[in-house]
Automatic annotation (TrEMBL):
Keyword ATP-binding: no
Species in which this protein is naturally found: Streptomyces nitrosporeus
Family: Belongs to the glycosyl hydrolase 13 family.
Biological processes annotated in GO: oligosaccharide catabolic process
Protein's recorded name: Alpha-glucosidase
UniProt keyword annotation of Iron-sulfur present: no
Taxonomic classification: Bacteria, Bacillati, Actinomycetota, Actinomycetes, Kitasatosporales
Length: 581
């Protein structure tokens, strides 16, 4: 690995993070050291050896800043401190040092599309009224022309929030509304204001001076809004207008990110990692964001492949996924960012259902094998892979009996809004069971004890009862476990240049059960073939020429037979072959 590269590389494949695997920690659910039921920094410190053993290079921490936790910390009330729930700044410094001691890096979550409504910037903006010095740090607007302020439909525009309801909340005292794309406790910052941008840059430099190695930037492609904030189209069956064309990759987004690069990253002595989370980003836009010569970001999280199994009703309108759609989408991103730019690779995170339940088969027979298949496919793509805590154990979606089992504001608001509009509760719960973000947020499963070794107290959200079957302790002891399979895949990224540098070519794009591709690296003269059977039935495939006697690099089915032509793959079998080319 090449660390400490001071300049931007000509090609992303030369940057240290092109050979890195990132592990996402959701601190609230990772490890609780003081029995208050909530994970904390000391808990993470105590589990660092587990992560070092897995072999990941970078840890990304979801937000640990002071917060009222309306959205589990994505509502920040102080950017330059640690929430007492998680510990102190001194604990943070100890964590960072312990991460660095083990040769890993640490990336912070940067949430600057919005703050908490309890951030002093916002309370000043609200309470000092329209003439106050911080008024234009946020986005305030009067009621719609001719409407009585504060009455239904009088909002400045018709945009619907990500978390249900309108994107506007009325402030009686000043008689105006403020904009919030997420909850009413997450007011959007006004990036048009240069003072706001400078304050954000200064805060980022403060964390870098403390020694952090980069930022994962929350919804960073939403920070520039179309001037005038025009109404959105109201899609059939929707309760609000779709404002997204007016805030996804808005008119000044590239300017803001290039400025941030100049002000924060350009002269920094260490080569950092920056990844922008970007709902709705297109390949064409992503190429601009990640083209090294433009000096904006290193990589982005795109959302296309996690939107393929939803209907017109949105994320809770669950539809079956077609493998051909998944391959077409991921394949297009591989090609689109092949020459210029760089992909980040993920199946799940704290906002998505568990990968094995969504893209694999979480029935007892195939859970572990299909989890290994998914890992194989993802880690063999070109880009930087992200592992979400518990994914390396094949943690699955949990069982939710009633609405009382949920904690997430998105799920609770959706349930309230839909049932209030007469939608059958069972139908609402069915969507939530598949898609609620709480599926990803149940505590990390360390062992078989009462709360899975996560806490000695009462966990803030129930552990998944399947922890007696799926847990870290059992998997560490079993050389065939999903954990050890991830460990081997992660090690491959450090030793096999074709994973980083190889060209990607999709094979059999029209096949509904086979996910197959090659990676060809001219410099090292190697070619890899990846074959994955996405289903519970045997699958006989034609091979491309000349792979019969190739070496098996990794496979998820033990005692794998040599490749023959044609070759039969067993249910959920995945294998990677290597040859000189
Ligand atoms: O998520 C942004 C986002 O677009 C979605 O993934 C969101 O979680 C939701 O599912 C939309 O339906 C980021 C964070 O990752 C998320 O946890 C926060 O809630 C959100 O931004 C606001 O900060
Ligand atoms: Ca705790």
């Amino acid at each position: 690995m090449r660390f400490d590269v001071p300049e931007i590389e000509a090609t992303p494949a030369d940057a240290w993070w092109s050979e890195a695997v990132v592990y996402q920690i959701y601190p609230r659910s990772f490890a609780d050291s003081n029995a208050d039921g909530i994970g904390d920094l000391q808990g993470i410190i105590e589990r660092l050896d587990y992560l070092a053993q897995l072999g990941v290079d970078v840890l990304w921490l979801s937000p640990v800043y002071p917060s009222p936790h309306d959205d589990n910390g994505y509502d920040i009330s102080d950017y330059q401190d640690i929430d007492p729930l998680f510990g102190t700044l001194a604990d943070f410094d100890r964590l960072l040092a312990a991460v660095h001691e083990r040769g890993m890096k640490l990336v912070m979550d940067l949430v600057v599309n919005h703050t908490s409504d309890e951030h002093p910037w916002f309370t000043a903006s609200r309470d000092e009224g329209p003439q106050g010095s911080k008024r234009d740090w946020y986005i305030w607007r009067p009621a719609r022309e001719g409407m009585e302020p504060g009455t239904p439909g009088a909002e400045p525009n018709n945009w619907g929030s990500f978390f249900s309801g309108p994107t506007w909340t009325y402030d009686e005292k000043s008689g105006e509304y403020y904009l919030h794309l997420f909850s009413r406790k997450q007011p959007d910052l006004n990036w048009e204001n240069p003072t706001v941008r400078q304050a954000v840059h200064a805060m980022m430099r403060w964390w870098l001076d403390r020694g952090v190695d980069g930022f994962r930037m929350d919804v960073v492609n939403l920070i520039s809004k179309t001037p005038g904030l025009p109404d959105g189209i109201v899609h059939e069956g929707a309760l609000h207008g779709d404002g997204s064309p007016h805030y996804i990759c808005g008119p000044r987004i590239h300017e803001y990110l290039a400025e941030m690069h100049r002000e924060v990253f350009e002269d920094h002595p260490r080569r950092l990692l920056t990844v922008g989370e970007m709902p709705g980003v297109t390949v064409e836009e992503a190429k601009l964001f990640t083209d090294p010569s433009r000096r904006e970001l290193d990589m982005v999280f795109q959302f296309e492949h996690v939107g393929l199994d939803q209907g017109p009703g949105g994320k809770f309108d669950v539809r079956p996924l077609k493998l051909t759609d998944l391959k077409a989408s991921l394949g297009r991103w591989q090609t689109g960012l092949g020459e210029t730019g760089w992909n980040s690779l993920y199946w799940n995170n704290h906002d998505q259902p568990r990968a094995v339940s969504r893209f694999g088969d979480d029935s007892p027979a195939y859970r572990d094998r299909s989890a290994k298949l998914l890992a194989t496919v993802l880690h063999l793509h070109r880009g930087t892979p992200y592992v979400y805590q518990g994914e390396e154990l094949a943690m699955a979606n949990t069982r939710f009996t009633s609405i009382d089992d949920f904690r997430d504001i998105e799920s609770l608001n959706y349930h309230r809004e839909q049932t209030a509009h007469g939608v059958d509760e069972e139908q609402v719960l069915a969507g939530l069971r598949h898609r609620s973000r709480d599926n990803a947020r149940t505590p990390m499963q360390w062992d078989t004890s009462q709360h899975a070794g996560f806490t000695a107290g009462t966990p803030w959200i129930a552990v998944n009862p399947d922890h007696t079957r799926t847990n870290a302790k059992a998997q560490l002891a079993d050389p065939d476990s999903v954990f050890h399979y991830y460990r081997r895949l992660i090690a491959l990224r450090h030793t096999e240049p074709a994973l980083t540098h190889g060209d990607f070519q999709m094979l059999h794009p029209d096949h509904e059960q086979l996910y197959a591709f090659t990676r060809h690296d001219a410099a090292s003269g190697t070619e890899l073939l990846v074959l994955a059977n996405f289903g519970p039935a045997d699958l006989t495939v034609d091979l491309p020429d000349g792979w019969e006697h190739s070496e098996t690099l990794i496979a998820n089915v033990p005692a794998t037979t040599p490749l023959s032509a044609p070759h039969t793959l067993r249910p959920w079998e995945a294998r990677v072959h290597r040859r000189n080319a």
